[in-house]
Amino acid sequence: MSDCQKPISASTRYGAVYGFPIRHSASPPMQNAGMRALGLDWRYLAFEVRPERLRQAIEGAKTMGFIGLNLTVPHKLLAVDMVEVLDESARVWGAVNTIRFETKLPSGEWVPVGRAEAIGEVRAQGFNTDAGAISRALREDLGVELRGATGVLLGAGGAGRTAALKLAAEGLARLHLVNRTAAKAEAIAREIQRLYPETQATVGYPAGKVDFLLNATSLGLKPGDPLPWDETRFPLRQAAAVYDMIYRPATTPLLQQARAAGCRTANGLGMLLYQGAQALEIWTERPAPVEVMRQALAEAMR
Ligand code: ATR
Question: Alpha-carbon distance 137 to 146, whole Å?
Fold first, then answer.
């Protein structure tokens, strides 16, 4: 690993994140730190791309020899129909947050553009690294062993649904789903019963203790937001650990109260880190320098 990086030249390769809006994104400092630590002559950029231009923007990157892309709101579902190949992760989760451009060798084998000497025919392969990041963050940042565990999940939107299904896929014993619109939580509970019958999914707060509570609602992003859970029905001391998917602000009122109640806590920065680290691994086919990327992310947040 090296801290110095060659200046941009005609052989520098590029990756990027597309979103709308995009200015808040912390991915460029994180990915550039990772690429630099791996000694790659690569740079990672951010572009504000309107959803109606997403297809064109993907084609543009493909044409210009980009190694890959990350996609954020509102592009993850749209992109499913804009890539030539879907990795199993993207098929299972129905969303693409990482694209790897691949080129065909004379042998017929497709290899990542980032590893190819010369670029010929190019195709885009879609991946999803968001779901894996949820379970990794709960394990590594919060010390939760998911298999056989009991959890409370707040929120049944896009993020909540992916989290719920991923937790069930990891072998959770019991999942208590809570959402303002109960019908959405009920639909997810039914989906879990169908796909992962070993996980008991119910709607509403548990009476007893749980291994963790996970917030996947947007409540806590803005000052003055109501709390994402009902304190009278679920005192936080009943949860051994509390994870908030929100990372800005770093300490939401939920995390503040969870700390006061003696729970282990972590914010959503780990999820951002692990989805990014896995994307870099997909492009490079090498282990990502996770700690370097974590530090860059923490600095960007300051
Ligand atoms: P994301 O893709 O981030 O999950 P989303 O699909 O819009 O975004 O979901 C937002 C989540 O926050 C939902 O669970 C939503 O509850 P509803 O399904 O009832 O809409 C929850 N949420 C947002 N604002 C809320 C509020 N003021 N009170 C309670 N829940 C709220």
Answer: 11
